[in-house]
């Protein structure tokens, strides 16, 4: 690489809460395979075009575990966060073992199961909105609804008692917010969480319920085609963490996008059958989805005509790919009726998001209940005043101030 070639810092700085950085369009047009410097100072390769991102995410030669000695470190302080530590290796990363794990756990995340959960989700959403309204306007939609709802739903699926939901919420936060808490507090929370799950699994063994963990236990150990105890425990922890922060943030961003141009909200009030496509379009146009998916290349390959040597760390920007004009007509426009909408918000291939039916259902239910209960909902601050959360692997807004 020539000395005068400019290397972008990544993540690309951006002040606008809901709009993409201008660099995305430039990179897609002129430099779809770009060299970037990560917060750690390490180099990586950034992909921004739809076809390239889709190709890499579906290619088994690109692994999601960044624990190889020559893999780029994402941050300078990385000392074994939850998913690059030994815990990350307990759930198989690839091949037949990973497919087997996905089949066992994925049975709980089918669209059919999610439809059965809809009434539970709707009741949780109703209760949370009632609480927010009781406290008076303006309220913070993120804190009142966005954050608690996904935790309460996953607790329901894991058979965790309702009174323990707030502890779960705190543990999940400490495992994801490596900037908000000190190392000692994070380690203490991890230990508490681990102990709680161990005790919870022991209780499920003696008294199984109608929940995901009871069913994983009932499937037997590895010799019976099931998972071992540690894998079940880590699966429970991973599902809580993975399903919490992403959906919690997306609820706030989706509602903000729909209220930022109130004609979108009015259109949904006039025709609630558009809720499904509105959710998909919000996922596609989310310009603040976080870091993107890092992948480590175990053998050399080619992307967009560029040679990538073995040992390259690639960052797939699904959010940039989702605005690619070669894949989406009028790609920058928010189209409430867009269908089909083959966006990459949930990834692609063997590692596409296991919980995507859960996330979709939660987003649809939240929108249904909000439109019904608070038709006059509006942002309580100008869009320009919405602030991004900085320094996390997942993107979101600090608060979503609303009135009704």
Automatic annotation (TrEMBL):
GO terms for molecular function: heme binding; iron ion binding; monooxygenase activity; oxidoreductase activity, acting on paired donors, with incorporation or reduction of molecular oxygen. Keywords: Heme, Iron, Metal-binding, Monooxygenase, Oxidoreductase. Gene3D superfamilies: Cytochrome P450. InterPro entries: Cyt_P450, Cyt_P450_B, Cyt_P450_CS, Cyt_P450_sf. Its cofactor is heme. PROSITE patterns: CYTOCHROME_P450. Pfam families: p450 (PF00067). The keyword Heme applies. Belongs to the cytochrome P450 family. This is Cytochrome P450. It comes from Streptosporangium roseum (strain ATCC 12428 / DSM 43021 / JCM 3005 / KCTC 9067 / NCIMB 10171 / NRRL 2505 / NI 9100). The lineage of its organism: Bacteria, Bacillati, Actinomycetota, Actinomycetes, Streptosporangiales.
């Amino acid at each position: 690489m020539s000395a005068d070639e400019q290397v972008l810092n990544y993540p690309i700085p951006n002040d606008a809460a809901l709009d993409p950085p201008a660099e995305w369009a430039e990179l897609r047009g002129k430099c779809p395979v770009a060299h970037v410097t990560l917060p750690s100072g390490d180099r990586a390769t950034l992909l921004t075009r739809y076809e390239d991102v889709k190709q890499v995410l579906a290619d088994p030669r690109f692994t999601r575990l960044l624990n190889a000695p020559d893999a780029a470190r994402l941050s300078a302080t990385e000392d074994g966060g939850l998913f690059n530590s030994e815990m990350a290796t307990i759930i198989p990363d690839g091949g037949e073992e990973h497919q087997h794990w996905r089949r066992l756990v994925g049975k709980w995340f089918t669209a059919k199961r999610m439809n059965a959960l809809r009434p539970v989700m709707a009741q949780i959403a109703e209760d949370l909105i009632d609480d927010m309204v009781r406290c008076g306007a303006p309220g913070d939609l993120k804190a009142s609804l966005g954050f608690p709802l996904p935790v309460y739903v996953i607790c329901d699926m894991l058979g965790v008692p309702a009174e323990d939901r707030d502890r779960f919420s705190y543990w999940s936060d400490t495992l994801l917010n490596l900037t908000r808490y000190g190392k000692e507090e994070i380690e203490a929370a991890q230990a508490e969480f681990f102990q709680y799950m161990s005790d919870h699994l022991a209780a499920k063994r003696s008294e199984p319920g109608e929940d995901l963990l009871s069913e994983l236990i009932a499937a037997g150990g590895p010799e019976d085609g099931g998972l071992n105890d540690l894998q079940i425990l880590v699966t429970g922890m991973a599902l809580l963490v993975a399903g919490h922060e992403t959906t919690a943030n997306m609820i706030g961003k989706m509602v903000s996008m729909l209220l930022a141009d109130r004609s979108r909200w009015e259109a949904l009030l006039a025709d609630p059958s558009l809720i499904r496509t509105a959710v998909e379009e919000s996922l596609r146009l989310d310009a603040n989805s976080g870091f993107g998916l890092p992948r480590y290349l175990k053998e050399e390959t080619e992307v967009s005509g560029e040679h990538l040597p073995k040992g390259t760390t690639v960052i797939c920007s699904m959010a940039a790919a989702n605005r690619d004009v070669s894949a989406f007509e009028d790609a920058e426009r928010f189209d409430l009726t867009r269908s089909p909408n083959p966006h990459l918000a949930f990834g692609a291939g063997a590692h596409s998001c296991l919980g995507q039916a859960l996330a979709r259902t939660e987003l649809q239910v939240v929108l249904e209940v909000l439109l019904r209960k608070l038709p006059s909902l509006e942002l309580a601050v100008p869009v320009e005043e919405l602030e991004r959360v900085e320094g996390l692997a997942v993107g979101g807004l600090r608060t979503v101030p609303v009135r009704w």
